[in-house]
Design brief:
Number of helices: 13
Bound molecules: zinc ion
Oligomer: single chain
CATH architecture: 3-Layer(aba) Sandwich
Strand order of the largest sheet: 3-2-1-4-6-5
Mean pLDDT: 94
Order of helices and strands: HHEHEHEHHEEHHEHHHHH
């Protein structure tokens, strides 16, 4: 298959076109953040922390999966910026045992309070099996993540926001890597109007396909009625900090974080990932992490060769079958 000569996006990726050098239109048109842009975001971020530190019960609510990027983000927020963190973990029923140990160990070591929300497993199974087997989302929604991941991230983002609103926490932090989310959204105030629109892409199709009982995990009219000035600011600091996967893993490993051996190579916390990737590649003929990895390659934090290896590697079929059996679906 034809692949961009600069990043890792293949010809099967939606909306792609190559020029005579074999470089894709995304590489040609997406501006790379320069040092000045990173510095100005860092400055905005640091003054935001100064404005909010110590004024609420918690300074920041961190979306904490126990994976490498959110663990590193927690370390930075605590050790470099001395924030009072509430770490929020959404247990989708398929968090690897090692990731759970990492969550307990890292929050204990860093002196961070942790909260875990775990919906009943049969309900999560039903949601993920439906997302895996039926076309419930628009194809556009799935450009950058598999159907199973999109479902889970939908729960996570809504539950995080709901928790921040209920506990009156001014900042919400994510460990998005530079390829996962653009620098332009690295410091961004949330608001009820935008949230209403966002909920349509995941919440609405999910509730109509699986059931209204999933509404518990999304924002309701009461939440959406909270005045805009009380809504938190989202931050994802890895977008404007130096991102080097090897160094991140080394630094958190020094604190006792252990890389799970039971997950897909692209995930350091979820046991459904191999199945999610397998189904996406089979249906769309490109890897659901292609967009993210292309972004990391473009930013220079990963070589094109390393990126290509990640997006072309076949899934471990034992992991695929394990997850398919757990969801009671056929592959
Ligand atoms: Zn490209």
């Amino acid at each position: 298959m034809n692949t961009c000569s600069r990043c890792v996006l293949p010809e099967s990726f939606p909306g792609i076109a190559f020029d005579e050098q074999g470089v894709c239109n995304y590489c040609r048109t997406i501006p790379l953040p320069d040092a000045a842009e990173k510095a100005s975001h860092l400055q905005r971020f640091e003054s935001l922390l100064d404005e909010n530190r110590g004024r609420h019960v918690y300074d920041v609510l961190l979306a904490y999966s126990g994976g490498k990027d959110s663990t590193y983000t927690m370390m930075v927020l605590k050790k470099r910026y001395h924030l009072n963190i509430l770490a929020f973990t959404f247990d989708n029923g398929f968090v690897s045992a090692q990731a759970k140990l990492n969550i307990l160990h890292m929050t204990d070591s860093l002196g961070v309070t942790s909260v875990m929300v775990r919906p009943p497993l049969p309900l999560m199974r039903k949601a993920f099996a439906t997302a895996a087997e039926k076309d419930i989302y628009s194809p556009k929604t799935l450009d950058r993540a598999s159907s199973i991941c999109t479902t889970c991230i939908g729960f996570v983002k809504s539950m995080i926001l709901k928790t921040a609103l209920v506990y009156d926490i001014p900042l919400v932090a994510y460990g998005w890597s530079p390829g996962q989310a653009p620098i332009s959204s690295a410091v961004m105030k949330t608001n009820p109007r935008l949230q209403r629109i966002t909920q349509r892409t995941v919440r609405d199709p999910l509730l109509s396909a699986v059931g209204e009982e999933l509404g518990t995990y999304f924002l309701n009219e009461t939440d959406l009625g909270i005045p805009a000035e009380r809504w938190p600011t989202n931050i994802h600091p890895l977008a404007f900090m130096e991102y080097d996967e090897e160094r991140i893993i080394r630094e958190i490993s020094d604190m006792g974080w252990v890389k799970p051996a039971d997950t897909d190579p692209n995930s350091t916390n979820c046991l459904l990932n191999a199945l999610a990737n397998y189904l996406h590649r089979r249906r769309f003929n490109y890897h659901p992490y292609a967009w993210e990895i292309a972004g990391i390659v473009r930013s220079g934090s990963m070589t094109r060769g390393e990126g290509l290896a990640k997006v072309t590697q076949d899934e471990d079929m034992n992991m695929v079958r394990y997850a398919a059996e757990a969801l009671k679906i056929k592959v």
